[in-house]
């Protein structure tokens, strides 16, 4: 009797599985990354510096206590992130050293999560622009930080924050695109003459 019930169940299972609704495994999916072409527009700060920024991004000056500052918040548009540019005047050599050390300390804060930190130095003596770009690999809060100075009276610190949970593998195409624009910003930065 048990053999007959088992055979009947097997027969029903075989007959019901012969339909057109076969399960087909889905292929793996990938993030679609349609980024705009790299085109740039010059951004002028009235008193301190200028640089070229991607047309896909939007820069706005920041205010403090109702007063306009030389700091900028750059919305990274299709990349869903923010680039903060903080400008500080440098009254003396000790202040410059303090700003550079502060920037390096901010980089060190991410050593725990970063799998690798690459740095790239910039030296443009004809424009008096010197600095370092730090690129963080891994699931970190910021993937790029940099500072630029003229070694005498200007200092800019930049930091990129993406508006999403840090997942380096998923963000890599966006970060590669952004790196091109950051390098262009750094290479086109100029200090205003006093």
UniProtKB/TrEMBL annotation:
Query: Does Signal count among this protein's keywords?
Result: yes
Q: Which Pfam families match?
A: GldD_lipo
What keywords were assigned to this record?
A: Signal
Source superkingdom: Bacteria
**Any signal peptide, and if so, which residues?**
1-19
What the entry lists under InterPro entries is as follows: GldD-like (IPR019850)
- Descriptive protein name: Gliding motility lipoprotein GldD
Q: Which organism is it from?
A: Fluviicola chungangensis
Lineage, opening ranks: Bacteria, Pseudomonadati, Bacteroidota, Flavobacteriia, Flavobacteriales
